[in-house]
Write a structure and sequence with these properties.
With about 300 residues, this protein is of the alpha/beta class. Helix content is about 35%, strand content about 25%. The protein has three domains: about 120 residues, D-Maltodextrin-Binding Protein, domain 2, CATH 3.40.190.10; about 80 residues, D-Maltodextrin-Binding Protein, domain 2 (3-Layer(aba) Sandwich); about 90 residues, Double Stranded RNA Binding Domain (2-Layer Sandwich).
Length: about 300
């Protein structure tokens, strides 16, 4: 049996796919696994913020097209890049155990966020990160920053920025933990939906692959990600709006936190809900409805209206 995995060509994407490849082969003797590199729109356009070139789906559409046409059998995604609604014929069949979902700050001089000088330049193209940072530090200058991890760190070292914010999961997978100046508490910066988690996407009629991948699934991760994605879907969110969410187990309970903010961080709405894993998706919808009732709907309408006017 041969499995072709569709992947982006970035170092991090390859590292993630090699990890999945190793798990598949260790559990299935005789299975051949091949990585098929696919360039996505998000990889090709590096001079514009994601919010201006299409939002979520920029790093997955071409890979999903390859799945649907049979060019590849499996896609390994960073779940924070995957839209809340999948194309017809595709499913997320397994979620390996989640890496650290936090964001991390990497700064010149190893300074934490609270000690970055007034007017300091912080690099990120994430509206979610920018809004939460500006809510706490409105004096900082947010400068758009795209590119892979190496590119971002190079620009930081060259002095183009005083600090950058990246996902802890990517830093850990690339073995760059020594670069981290501060792990940002989720109480201050709530992560992106699905951040730190991988999702294995396949054609829904490919029963043999679905069965083979079942051993890679980590149920607590699946429950958390499904809760977060239900929250995102109810809000009809994408990269154009600062939306964040994180679910975690607390004993037998599932805790889901969510956030919606104005682009400049001037208004930030945050709430949480408790329940059980079997209610994960219902919890996501309920939390979204609570935030909408608190004013998130007005924020969303305002932000989307601004993008429609461009």
């Amino acid at each position: 049996m041969k499995i072709r995995i569709g992947t982006r060509g970035s170092t991090l994407a390859i590292v993630q796919c090699e990890w999945v490849k190793g798990r598949i082969r260790s559990r299935n003797a005789g299975v051949e696994v091949e990585l098929v590199r696919i360039s996505t729109k998000g990889d090709k356009i590096l001079d514009s913020p994601l919010s201006k070139i299409g939002g979520k789906g920029l790093f997955v559409k071409e890979i999903e097209d390859a799945l649907l046409t049979g060019r590849v059998d499996l896609a390994v995604h960073s779940m924070k890049d995957v839209p809340a609604v999948l194309p017809d014929g595709l499913i997320l069949t397994a979620f390996p155990e989640r890496e650290d979902p936090h964001d991390v700050l990497i700064s010149n001089g190893g300074l934490p966020l609270s000690r970055i000088p007034q007017g300091g330049r912080l690099g990120t193209s994430s509206l979610r990160r920018a809004a939460q940072v500006l809510h706490a530090r409105p004096d900082l200058e947010i400068i758009p920053l795209r590119g892979n991890v190496d590119t971002r760190l190079k620009k930081l070292r060259e002095g183009q920025f005083d600090a950058v914010i990246l996902a802890a999961a990517g830093i850990n997978r690339l073995r760059l933990r020594e670069e981290v100046s501060q792990i940002l508490p989720t109480a201050d910066v709530l992560p992106a939906i699905g951040q730190g988690a991988l999702g294995l996407e396949v054609r829904e009629d490919n029963a043999s692959i679905i069965d083979l991948l079942s051993s890679l699934n980590h149920p607590p991760t699946e429950i958390a990600v499904r809760a977060e994605r239900a929250f995102l879907q109810k809000l009809e969110g994408g990269c154009q709006v600062p939306i964040a969410g994180l679910a975690r187990q607390d004993g037998r309970e599932l805790i889901l936190e969510g956030m919606v903010a104005e682009l400049d961080g001037s208004r930030l709405l945050r709430d949480g809900i408790r329940g059980i894993g079997e209610q994960a998706e219902e919890m996501g919808v309920s939390l979204a409805e609570r935030l909408i009732a608190a004013g998130a709907g007005d924020i969303l309408d305002g932000v989307y209206g601004r993008y429609e006017e461009r």
